[in-house]
Amino acid sequence: MNTSKTFLLGGTDSINRIGYGAMRLTNQPSNFGAYPNWQQGLELLQEASALGVNFFDSAYAYGPGWADKIIGEAFGNLDKKPFFATKGGVDKPAPGNIVTDGSEKMLLQQIDKALVNLKVEQIDLFQLHRVDPNTPIEISVAAIAKAQKAGKVKHIGLSNVSRDQLDAGLSVAAIASVQNRFNQNEQGDNDLVDYTLAKGIAYIPYGPLGAHPMKQGAALPSQQALKWLLERSPNIIVIPGTTSITHLRENVTTWETM
After folding, report:
1. If pLDDT is split at 50, 70 and 90, which confidence band does 1 have?
2. Cα–chain center distance at 92
3. What is the pLDDT of residue 209?
4. Rounded Cα gap, residues 47 and 51, in angstroms
């Protein structure tokens, strides 16, 4: 059984393996607009950090932009900020209107917006949110690598990818993480979890509790589901999302049940 509490992402950054996913810190259920109880959201993020969470995962499409903004405001005045992960290549111009665009122009625009929203000079981890069927993944990864070379991005990640797509990305640049849907009830990525482990790549399962992305409630008991993931592989970083400080504290104390 693996009980390591940290993972060295990209070979350089020690990440506590219980992180926080910020998708629900937007106007629900459409995931469009600012989180209605902004101050409570700031306090929840700050409490997560106080409890030892140092990995906060977001995306431009969350809001759009609003999840990045609330994270940026929560930690904007700190000299030493937590590790910020965000995503690009997906836009949401209206509720329910999801547009995938992995072009260099879109990715570079969203990277610049994320720098402003997160209030940082460099994004710790920028992930391609989805592979654009009209843009080869090699082009998308090359665009992020261009921003990396300019000092705007530290690590590159991929989301919603297959092993072949990961390999294609790796042919262009070093990939530090993969974020796909994976949980105790949905184990289609078992082989990819093992493949990323062998390559030293972090695996970040979204939907760790089996929840529908646009609905409240989870299919799996939180501590049981998180414990299963943490024991599944030492490269897994879980990012349960919640708007409840009580649930946040329960999630963070999962280690005490192992």
Report:
1. low
2. 17
3. 87
4. 6
Beta bridge partners of 178: 158, 203
Residue 145: Cβ within 10 Å count = 16
SS (H, E, C) the chain: CCCCCEEEECCCEEEECECEECCCCECCCCCECECCCHHHHHHHHHHHHHCCCCEEECCCCCECCHHHHHHHHHHCCCCCCCEEEEEECEEEEECCEEEECCCHHHHHHHHHHHHHHHCCCCEEEEEECCCCCCCCHHHHHHHHHHHHHCCCEEEEEEECCCHHHHHHHHCCCCCCEEECECECCECCCHHHHHHHHHCCCEECCECCCCCCCCCCCCCCCHHHHHHHHHHHCCCECECCCCCCHHHHHHHHHHHHHC
| Strand 97-100 relative to strand 123-128, pairing | unpaired
* The one catalytic residue among 20, 35, 60, 62: 62
* Amino acid in position 143: A
For range 101-108, the mean pLDDT: 98
Domains of the chain (ranges; CATH) run 6-251 (3.20.20.100)
- Mean pLDDT computed over 214-239: 84
* Angle CA 249–251–257, to nearest 5: 105
Tokens of 72: 């940026």
**Model-level pTM?**
0.96
List the end-to-end C-alpha distance of the chain, in Å, as a whole number.
9
206 tagged catalytic: no
Residue 93 near residue 99, CB atoms below 8 Å: yes
Strand duo 123-128 + 55-57: pairing: unpaired
What mean pLDDT value characterizes the chain?
95
Residue 139 identity (one-letter amino acid): I
